[in-house]
Write a structure and sequence with these properties.
The complex is a heterotrimer of chains A (245), B (262) and C (269).
Chain A lengths: L4 E15 L6 E15 L3 E5 L6 H8 L7 E6 L5 E3 L13 H12 L4 H14 L16 H13 L5 E5 L7 H18 L2 E6 L2 H7 L2 E6 L2 E7 H6 L4 H10 L1
Parallel strand pairs in A: 3-7, 3-8, 5-6, 6-7
Antiparallel strand pairs in A: 1-2, 1-4, 8-9
Chain B lengths: L1 E10 L7 E8 L4 E5 L6 H9 L7 E9 L2 E2 L5 H7 L4 E4 L13 H12 L4 H14 L5 H5 L8 H13 L5 E5 L7 H18 L2 E6 L2 H7 L2 E6 L2 E7 H6 L4 H9 L10
Helix pairs in contact in B: 3-4, 3-6, 4-6
Chain C lengths: L6 H22 L31 H37 L1 H16 L2 H12 L6 H25 L3 H8 L4 H37 L11 H9 L6 H32 L1
Classes of the chains: A alpha/beta (245), B alpha/beta (262), C mainly alpha (269).
């Protein structure tokens, strides 16, 4: 049975205006070229590529922060949430973990204080953040704990789809493994889809069902994870895989 | 060659010792890896070897001997003579390790200016030679470039050139590939291997990336909370880790042998 | 967050506290009527008049108590105007950038380029000297640019934090981002800037009153009294000493608090 689509990215071109203050001196700097893929419910799609290939531009386009200059982004569910790489700047240092998780509910509105409290507690338990960390400020938390809080804050909005932008790259291996397991566990419990961005092909292999290989703003190869990793069609993919062995 | 004997380091504002009595030997021409997660004490160990310990803010004991010379208790002035000449250091962030206003060639030969009495042309010759040996192409052009004009991979090569130009007996590598893309990372590791093979240079690699360590090092030492939990041949440790912590660490490495399933 | 007090902060609070105490007492009680001229001219300090009396036979201690309050009130409202408007300008320019940033910051530059004292003079003469709050208004305006500049830098560096992006993706309004997320993070620079501004305000008020365009009788501020004392340095030096010392005490104390706050914020971050 084919699961329903959550996201379609159709032949997207995108870029930024660059240049000086004067009207004539600006030019269009294109960073994405004909990017085309879909994500289905419950699927983990990996996005691999080296720095500067347009991975973060793609997330900005998906999140609607940058308009594509050509093509379309179609969301079949509500807009996705994002978890960033750097757990240090993802949380406001002034507020506690519980506050950060509660924030989206306040902004959304329509929940009473006790409802919010209950949902926050439920969420923090789901991401397995120890109870004595709930009222802690970000600088009292470890990198892994911070990332758990970021995930909770993203999930409390009940998205069907999460963008994970290098969520484990800043973490030590042992913590990394814990967070990856948590992500898999959450996907199973909540039937989530992920777009998992990483420069680490081994992590992508461990976690993802399908993979996109990006190079200089284009998707050079995409497909089933085993297929791409075991029988890469492109020279670039082969090089990347060889380097990561 | 390098011998660390029962090194203890404790910072004055901490309760726990950052390094709690470690002993480690590096033989001539050997590449040893020192691994562990952040906060395990590997960086403090490296700082002690490089003589970069903030001595007033910590208490320390033990010995660090480089070819018989004491590095831990040496006077500042003596250390200064050893710096660069006997120990070359390569840091994680090449961009912040370089002076943005000086062309990279001058930075490569800076150490020669400090430690030798070579003439300008001799120094430049040496620098170009070192830069060629790290597989930089068109070295004359690179010599006159500024850091912002070079890519991260090239900059890291320049850093290595600067570290080896005075032909030190030990190269200290502090997460040298962490900031780089995998393909560049692979090239740099190959380069380091080549330098080790051709020049017989000993290296100490500090890294949290156990994959990188496995590719480069013949022996590895795993640190946890300030102590060495396991030291041994790389393959031996990766295939048959003895200590439960090492086992846990090795199992956490993402590999292509297995997929996570839940 | 554990916040440790430091020596600077404690000493600063203690010293500022003395002047603050003067001002508080002055509101409710003074040993003599500060404007009554019947205690004998140029009495040196004694048990009856601990700071002595002035040329009109007024009790100086009573006048210092009253004057401290006036000075504190003027300085506080001046910096507050500067800080509040400056923060708003800084927040808007720093957060949005672009055209509005260009316009407001050039305006800011123009204000900065103008000698501040001259500007204050100009505003006082426009509003009308003699009016009670013309000094406050004039000095307040003069203080806006420095706050705006500091706060703009802060807001601009904070606006790209991931928590801001996340809040925006949640659909948070700009006001929420500016005041709930960013403002609390700027306290670390705002507080020290506030203390420095406060000291500048005390000095500026003193010099304006000294020139006779600040407070007008029967009100008296410390600066105004210092300018009075100037004429009688020989006959009653105690007048200049007591008012001058109070000003120095206030500035020294607040300066220490500012220093302490900066150390604190460095320790926390």
């Amino acid at each position: 049975m084919v699961k329903p689509l959550v996201l379609e990215v159709q032949h997207v071109d995108a870029g930024y205006m660059e240049g000086g203050l004067l009207a004539g001196s600006k030019w269009f700097h294109q960073v994405l070229f004909d990017v085309d893929f879909t994500i289905r419910q419950g699927e983990i799609l990996g996005l691999a590529g080296e720095s500067g290939t347009g991975k973060s531009s793609l997330t900005r386009v998906i999140l609607g922060m940058v308009e594509p200059s050509k093509g379309k982004v179609i969301h079949h569910t509500q807009k996705p949430q994002i978890v960033f790489q750097d757990p240090y700047s993802s949380l406001n240092p002034v507020y506690s973990a519980a506050w950060s998780v509660e924030e989206p509910l306040r902004i959304l509105g329509g929940f009473s204080a006790s409802e919010r409290r209950r949902m926050v507690e439920e969420m923090l338990e789901m991401v397995e953040l120890p109870r004595d960390c709930w009222e802690a400020k970000p600088d009292e938390l470890s990198g892994g704990q911070r990332q758990r809080v970021s995930i909770a804050a993203a999930l409390i909005q009940k998205p069907r789809f999460l963008i994970l932008d290098e969520p484990v790259s800043a973490l030590d291996v042992t913590i990394q493994a814990q967070i990856l397991k948590l992500l898999l566990q959450l996907r199973r419990e909540l039937d989530l889809s992920y777009l998992f961005i990483s420069h680490d092909l081994n992590v992508i292999y461990q976690l993802c069902d399908r993979v996109l290989i990006m190079k200089a703003g284009r998707i050079v190869e995409q497909g089933d994870i085993e297929e791409v990793f075991n029988h890469p069609n492109e020279e670039y993919t082969r090089n990347l895989l060889a380097a990561a062995m | 060659m390098l011998e660390i004997r029962d090194l203890h380091v404790k910072f004055n504002n901490r309760d726990r010792e950052a390094v709690g009595g470690i002993s480690l030997t590096i033989h001539d021409g050997e590449i040893v890896g020192l691994g562990g997660i952040s906060g395990s004490g590997k960086t403090v160990t490296a700082m002690s070897i490089a003589g970069l310990l903030p001595r007033k803010q910590c208490t320390y004991s033990g010995d660090i001997l480089l070819n018989g010379q004491d590095l831990l208790h040496a006077k500042r002035s003596e250390l200064r003579k050893l710096h660069g000449k006997e120990i070359g250091v390569v840091f994680q962030e090449p961009m912040s390790a370089m002076d943005p206003l000086m062309c990279v060639g001058k930075q490569v030969e800076e150490v020669l200016l400090i430690h030798t009495k070579l003439s300008d042309t001799q120094r430049k010759e040496k620098a170009l030679e070192a830069m060629a040996s790290v597989d930089l192409h068109d070295v004359e052009h690179v010599y006159n470039s500024y850091p912002h004009e070079l890519s991260g991979g090239m900059l890291q090569r320049v850093m290595i050139a600067a570290a080896i130009v005075s032909e030190p007996s030990l190269l200290l590598l502090d997460e040298p590939t962490t900031a780089l893309d995998v393909t560049i990372q692979a090239q740099l590791l190959a380069l380091l291997k080549k330098l080790n093979r051709e020049r017989g240079m000993s290296m100490l690699l500090i890294s949290h990336n156990l994959n990188v360590m496995r590719k480069l090092c013949s022996r590895v030492a795993i640190m946890e909370r300030g102590v060495l939990v396991e030291v041994g041949d790389t393959e031996e440790i990766y295939e048959r880790p003895q200590h439960p912590y090492t086992k846990h660490l090795i199992e956490s490495i993402p590999t292509r042998d297995r997929r996570l399933s839940w | 967050m554990k916040r440790k007090m430091n020596g600077y902060l404690l000493a600063g609070i203690g010293i500022t506290g003395i002047v603050l105490l003067f001002a508080l007492i002055g509101i409710f009680w003074t040993p003599y009527l500060p404007t009554a001229m019947k205690y004998g001219r140029f009495q040196p300090p004694s048990l009856q008049h601990i700071f002595g009396t002035d040329n009109f036979g007024r009790d100086i201690f009573s006048r210092v108590l009253k004057g401290s309050g006036t000075t504190l009130a003027i300085a506080l409202s001046t910096v507050s105007i500067g800080a509040v408007i400056g923060t708003l300008v800084g927040a808007v320019t720093g957060y949005f950038g672009g055209r509005i940033d260009d316009v407001l910051m050039r305006l800011n530059d123009a204000l900065t380029a103008f000698p501040s004292f001259l500007l204050a003079l100009l505003i006082v003469s426009l509003v009308g000297p003699g009016k009670k709050y013309s000094v406050v208004l004039a000095l307040g305006l003069v203080f806006i640019p420095s706050f705006a500049r500091v706060m703009r830098t802060e807001f601009a560096s904070l606006r790209n934090r991931n928590y801001v992006t996340r809040a925006r993706l949640m659909g948070a309004k700009t006001g929420w981002i500016l005041f709930v997320h960013l403002l609390p993070n700027t306290i670390r620079v705002l507080l020290p800037a506030f203390t420095i501004g406060f000291n500048n305000a005390v000095l500026a008020e003193a010099s304006m009153s000294f020139l006779g365009i600040g407070v007008t009788p029967p009100d008296a501020s410390l600066g105004y009294m210092l300018s009075e004392a100037q004429g009688m340095l020989k006959a009653g030096p105690w007048y200049a000493v007591s008012t001058g010392c109070t000003i120095v005490l206030l500035i020294f104390g607040v300066g220490l608090i500012g220093e302490g706050l900066q150390i604190l914020s460095r320790e926390v971050s």
